[in-house]
Amino acid sequence: MRKIVIGTLRKYGLFFLLVIGIISFNSYIFKGDYRISENIDGVSNYTRAISNTGIKENIKFDSTDVYSLGIWLKISSVEDDIKVKLLDGSKEIYSGDIPKSDVKEGEAKEVTLKLNGEKGLKVKKNKTYTLTIKDNSKRKSSSLVYLNRQRKLWHRTTYKLLDSKTIRSTAILFEIAVLSLLVYLIRFSQYQKRLSKFENQFLLVSVFLIIGYALFIPIYRAPDEWMHFARAYGVLHGIFLIDTSGNINIPSNLIPVTNTVNSNYIDTIKNLHVILSSQISSTNIINMALYTPQSYVLQSLSIGIISIITKNVLLIFYGSRVLVGMLCTLIIYYSIKYIPIGKEILAICSLLPMNVAERASLSADGFTYAVIIAFFSFVIYYLKNKNNMTNRMRVLMYMLLFFLASCKVIYFILGFLILLIPNEKFGSKLKGIWNKLVSMIILMVVSVGWLRIASRYLVNTNGGSSSSEKVEFILKHPFNYIEIMNSTFWKNIFVYIEQMIVGPLGALNIEINSGLLIIALVVLVKYCVFDFKLTPRVLFIWILCLANVLLIYTSLYVQWTPAINGVSQITEIIGIQGRYFLPVLPIMMISFQLNKINNKCVGVINDWRSIISLLVINMLVLSNVIGFFAI
Known about the structure:
Elements: H1 2-29, E1 34-37, E2 47-50, E3 55-59, E4 65-74, E5 82-88, E6 91-97, E7 108-114, E8 121-122, E9 129-135, E10 143-146, E11 155-162, H2 164-187, H3 198-216, H4 225-236, E12 247-251, H5 265-270, E13 280-284, H6 297-309, H7 313-338, H8 343-350, H9 353-359, H10 365-384, H11 391-407, H12 429-454, H13 467-476, H14 478-501, H15 514-525, H16 536-559, H17 584-591, H18 608-628
Helix pairs in contact: 1-2, 1-18, 2-18, 3-7, 3-18, 4-6, 6-7, 7-8, 7-10, 8-17, 10-11, 11-12, 13-14, 15-18, 16-17
């Protein structure tokens, strides 16, 4: 019996450990009932006196279970007797007092009224109810209630979406079911042999995760996603270049959410009915003007396809998220399939939570990463492959180069990886030199050409107005600039690592549990094998990666870092995020294996456990995202 138990634990130990992790983490995240507050604008300076005749306001609800109402008010005296009632026609469905313990005399504050205690109140969605606020104390000095910008009563509604037991049980059962299904498919099903390959495991896991991230990251909540959506929509309709002011004409309700940085699931519920309007309005997206129209080829294609099926704004948005994520994943799948070494590294890096979240959004970063990885895989493929490059493959090479140079100009330097391909692979030494020369011309013309175009937008960006002075400072004081970069790097290195691996997600304001970061790092570090020789090829890759990092820093220094007190007073580069280093990470890690490329049998560490572990880490990250919005 003891031997059976030990054998079972050895064989299925990781599975049981992951199940325990799923149960423990979800029990920790979903402790109480799942309640979400309405995402609304802040209060204005407009007020209204609460008299003995009372204030009446018609309100509607976006869900059927109302937990609480928040109102902003200023109590003139703790003796005030302020009553709040909610009426359904003439029928009173709630009556309560302002909780005096929550406010101080003369203090303006949001006060929360729990409706029917912890149980909440059942209402009808989108039905009009009347909220009355009345002061029965008959004092001369009135308390004040605050209004919104439209001079209507400001109020925040908190909805109870699910009870704690339901959401906790649902999350645990669903995640264990997905884990069990994928372990079965990979290890025991008739597809076991096919799924023994890393690229197929990656594709299988990615399909689940792309759908998960696309649906559960709230609407427009990825970094600048609403602007990416507007830019991609503009490209679809022929607006390739934006006016220097940054304004673009789009349907007036393409972005129905006002506070996109803090959007939550209530915003999705509220706007499910929104149909694309024919009325056009101007919106400023100056930061997206710096992106080439080529960066949005997948987003525009996806929006166009979904728009044929439906005109519902949210269905277009979420459908495009899923489709973009799948297309980017497909590019990475073929990159993993054809790269002769580092398959496991490429799969692991591409399944890091931040990486998956970027692919499952309308940001340009997901496509940029996929293109860079595809180009790198292409180069490594021809370092190993003995056959000469066909015309078809040469066309593919130029296409990848074009998109690499134009998706995000800061990564154009990685296009020089093409110099690693032996000239003979092009048919002859002369043809190799010629093709590489053409490639360099494409890289420089596309990247420098777009920089010339984009420079006209810099004056309207956060720190771009002083861009010429910053460039001059770098040229005149290179060592001072190196010191600024060095200081910025060491000051933020742990933040960069966290941002590159797990987040924060959303608009960089959805905090992810540090425990998940540590576990993801353990899985990643497992493949940091430093068994390599410093060959000229490896050194060349390192130089390009270092140059790319310098370009990232310099781009953010010139474009984004404000010079409030003058360029010479800048001590730190602002705006650098760990996710910008994601394309460099697998390239650096795979370079450690480059000395093995000529081995007749290049060993692939086909460890399905790492892929499955990252599946669970990502599912727990999604639980973290969902739980982040709970009150």
